[in-house]
């Protein structure tokens, strides 16, 4: 019999018979080519067994139902009895509800943080009135990152709410029935497993048969001719695809079901990357130099989480209430959701700012004055902790979005699976005394898992301990390194990975102490050599030149130099592209700022705060082009400038202060400052009396009186543009209003006004050149006799309100201080 004759005989037999499926209905169809070759690769048909009892297709559904772990017969309308919450979820049920509620709230808060970080920080800390709302100077990433991260957090907030609703629906019959439905044979997961199975275990049948296929078909056709039960064979052929689906669903059940054979390995495959991400967060905290209390608070639960995950992996006994699984998931919820918020709460409770005292400064001192910068009077270490905590809430890069999605997405998936298991367990009518199936471990996989989990656990403990010990040892000689990164150098380096250098004296008592401040160049040079410096704050200490080693600190973000005798900045300053806060304040008489590279700010596109004070020797101001994120710009004592920089691209600028621009003939256009809220032009300014700003010329005004070594002021016919004037009036800006009637030189400390009159005693009544004043360290200078009157008014207000420190009745009686006060 030839091949084609065999096929024709096969088809003839097929067309003459009706196949029954065991029901009242019958179906007639032709066998496919796959059925014609009898699945020869799997050998599912044997001619020797053709006489056995037929296998009916309807049995395939029973196989699927029994093997997927869903007992459809256990939940019926007549026996659907409401369950108690405690019977379903146990004692951890309430904990789960509280955790989901807090997680949803936390996710919603983080979504708001991504959109309006500065407003959120001010609202939480109550700092909206400090530094015009720019107290923390929090930057926003790109719009695409903001939108994506905000949507992500909002989505997970809704998903945690969904878990609450799903959890509380355990007594709804519709919910229980949906959970007991058999998995569809057309489900995506089933089709995926079938596809993978076919790639590995099946071969495509070609249209032209091979000699072997020809012999197989001929033999089968002959067997069919001799068969006494064509129906049994036909049913087997019909069940071929069903059996493949059955095997696929059984494999899915063994992997995903809590009682499945491979479920522990599936859990481990998810736990390991999750734990790796959590460990990477710990490394980030170590790298950023978070306080030891925070690091320990994070590291201890992390090690416990590794151990509990390993315990679940090696456990072979059943856990019907999934207590271990829920414990692990609660730990995961702590790391993925709650830890950033808890760190922010810690920073909040450890931040102390005398807001009442600062309020008196705002009420009595001229806008733009040095003493109104709240950030300078706050504890810098507390500020760093607060900034780091808020930065930890923000998503600044795409990879962080991936990590957040992975951790929270996997957490929601696992919680839903656990809740589903608990609901079905409570509805099960099976024999409770029947022991669950115990699946023994594969020795190879167990050894591999134990090695991975335990080695990582021990490695975390060792790495954290040695990192803390090594950095603390290397940084111990540097008392002014306030924050340092915890790093374990394999090469045994003794370099201190300093992040924050702070050396400041806020109230020098003697003139010599102020004029001959200690030089900190060597200390800065030594710490800058590590390349880790991110913040430098130096007040009343000498740093004549920035050391070349500072160039290595590519991540420098905050640079505050107040009375450091730094007259010139090097040309490589533009390399600090991460700069966010730049403040330099000089003694304009003895060490005024003379040079800033013209392109210094060209790469500092992230800068938010820029103040140059005491720049009496500066003849050209650097370009501000491209600084679209700059929010505060202050230029004081810029006496040798002929022209101010262009402001057109400063679309985010909210505060603009200019003082002592005595040779500026006009202001740059303000029309590009679409976010401007605060404006002040004060002290001596030529445009305030030559007619440009006020509309009339008054050369007898104090600001336009002739000075030695200065060109005479002349009237001008030019006027401030109407659009610029409208902007200033709209925000109620200070433009050439009531101003001081003394030159700044008269307010600068001298040996007589310091050691001769005040002798380092704050708030003492003093007289200088026939004028009464107060001994005070204004602008963080040495204590000297100030006769301008603003500091006296401020101190009187503080005494009347009982803020700003306890007053001394003996020294401050003239200010209204008494024993009862």
UniProtKB/TrEMBL annotation:
Gene3D superfamilies: Ribonuclease Inhibitor (3.80.10.10)
Organism the protein comes from: Phytophthora oleae
Protein name per its UniProtKB record: WLGC domain-containing protein
The keyword Isomerase is annotated on this UniProt entry: no
UniProt xrefs under InterPro entries: LRR_dom_sf, WLGC
Transmembrane segments: 88-109, 145-168, 290-308, 328-348, 444-462
Domain of life, source organism: Eukaryota
Domain WLGC: 754-818
Key words of the record: Membrane, Transmembrane, Transmembrane helix
């Amino acid at each position: 019999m030839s091949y084609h004759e065999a096929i024709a005989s096969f088809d003839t037999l097929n067309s003459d018979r009706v196949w029954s499926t065991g029901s009242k209905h019958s179906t007639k169809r032709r066998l496919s080519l796959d059925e014609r070759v009898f699945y020869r690769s799997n050998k599912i048909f044997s001619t020797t067994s053709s006489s056995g009892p037929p296998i009916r297709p309807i049995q395939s559904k029973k196989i699927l139902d029994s093997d997927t772990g869903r007992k459809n017969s256990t939940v019926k309308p007549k026996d659907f009895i409401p369950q108690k919450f405690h019977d379903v979820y146990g004692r951890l049920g309430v904990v789960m509800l509280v955790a989901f509620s807090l997680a949803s709230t936390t996710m919603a808060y983080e979504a708001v943080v991504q959109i309006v970080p500065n407003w959120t920080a001010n609202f939480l800390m109550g700092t909206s009135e400090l530094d015009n709302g720019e107290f923390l100077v929090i930057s926003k990433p790109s719009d695409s990152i903001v939108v994506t991260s905000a949507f992500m957090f909002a989505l997970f907030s809704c998903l945690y709410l969904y878990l609450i609703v799903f959890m509380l629906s355990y007594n709804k019959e519709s919910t229980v029935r949906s959970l007991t439905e058999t998995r569809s044979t057309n489900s995506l997961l089933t089709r995926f497993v079938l596809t993978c199975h076919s790639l590995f275990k099946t071969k495509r049948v070609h249209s032209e048969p091979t000699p072997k296929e020809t012999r197989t078909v001929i033999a089968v056709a002959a067997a069919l001719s001799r068969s006494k039960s064509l129906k049994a064979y036909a049913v087997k052929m019909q069940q071929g695809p069903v059996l493949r689906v059955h095997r696929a669903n059984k494999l899915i059940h063994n992997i995903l079901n809590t009682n499945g054979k491979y479920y522990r390995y599936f859990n481990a495959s998810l736990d390991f990357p999750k734990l790796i991400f959590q460990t990477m967060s710990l490394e980030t905290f170590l790298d950023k130099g978070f306080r030891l209390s925070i690091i320990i608070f994070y590291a201890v639960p992390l090690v416990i989480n590794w151990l509990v995950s390993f315990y679940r992996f090696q456990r072979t006994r059943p856990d019907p209430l999934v207590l271990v699984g829920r414990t692990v998931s609660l730990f995961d919820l702590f790391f993925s959701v709650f830890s950033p918020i808890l760190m922010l709460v810690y920073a909040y409770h450890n931040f102390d700012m005398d807001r009442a005292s600062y309020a008196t400064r705002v009420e009595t001192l001229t806008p733009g004055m040095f003493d109104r910068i709240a950030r300078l009077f706050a504890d810098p270490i507390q500020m760093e902790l607060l900034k780091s905590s808020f930065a930890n809430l923000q998503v600044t890069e795409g990879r962080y979005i991936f990590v957040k999605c992975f951790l929270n997405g996997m957490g929601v998936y696992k919680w839903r699976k656990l809740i589903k298991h608990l609901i079905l367990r409570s509805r099960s009518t099976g024999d409770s005394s029947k022991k669950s199936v115990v699946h023994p471990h594969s020795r190879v996989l167990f050894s591999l898992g134990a090695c991975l989990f335990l080695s990582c656990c021990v490695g975390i403990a060792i790495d954290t301990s040695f990192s803390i010990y090594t950095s603390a040892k290397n940084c111990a000689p540097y008392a002014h390194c306030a924050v340092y990164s915890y790093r374990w150098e394999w090469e045994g380096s003794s370099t201190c990975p300093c992040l924050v250098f702070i050396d400041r004296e806020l109230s020098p008592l003697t003139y010599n102490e102020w004029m001959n401040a200690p030089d900190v160049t060597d200390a800065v040079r030594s710490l800058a050599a590590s390349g880790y410096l991110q913040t430098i704050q130096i007040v009343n200490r000498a740093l004549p030149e920035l050391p070349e080693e500072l160039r290595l600190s590519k991540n420098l973000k905050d640079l505050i130099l107040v009375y450091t005798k730094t007259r010139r900045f090097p040309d490589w300053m533009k390399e600090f592209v991460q700069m966010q806060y730049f403040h330099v304040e000089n003694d304009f008489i003895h060490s005024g700022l003379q040079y800033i590279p013209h392109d210094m700010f060209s790469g500092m596109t992230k800068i938010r705060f820029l103040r140059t004070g005491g720049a009496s020797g500066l003849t050209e101001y650097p370009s501000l082009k491209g600084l679209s994120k700059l929010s505060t710009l202050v230029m004081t004592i810029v006496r040798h400038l002929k022209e101010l920089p262009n402001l057109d691209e400063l679309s985010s600028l909210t505060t603009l202060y200019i003082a002592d621009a005595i040779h500026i003939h006009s202001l740059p256009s303000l029309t590009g400052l679409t976010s401007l809220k605060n404006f002040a032009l004060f002290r001596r300014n030529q445009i305030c009396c030559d007619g440009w700003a006020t509309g009339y010329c008054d050369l007898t005004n104090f600001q336009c009186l002739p000075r030695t070594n200065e060109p005479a002021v002349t009237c001008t016919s030019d006027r401030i543009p109407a659009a610029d004037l409208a902007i200033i009036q709209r925000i109620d800006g200070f433009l050439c209003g009531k101003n001081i009637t003394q030159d700044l030189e008269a307010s600068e400390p001298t040996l007589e006004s310091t050691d001769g009159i005040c002798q380092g005693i704050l708030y003492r009544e003093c007289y200088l050149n026939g004028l009464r004043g107060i001994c005070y360290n204004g602008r963080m200078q040495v204590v000297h006799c100030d006769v301008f009157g603003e500091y006296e008014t401020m101190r009187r207000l503080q005494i009347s309100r009982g803020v700003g420190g306890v007053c001394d009745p003996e020294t401050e009686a003239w200010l209204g201080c008494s024993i009862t006060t």
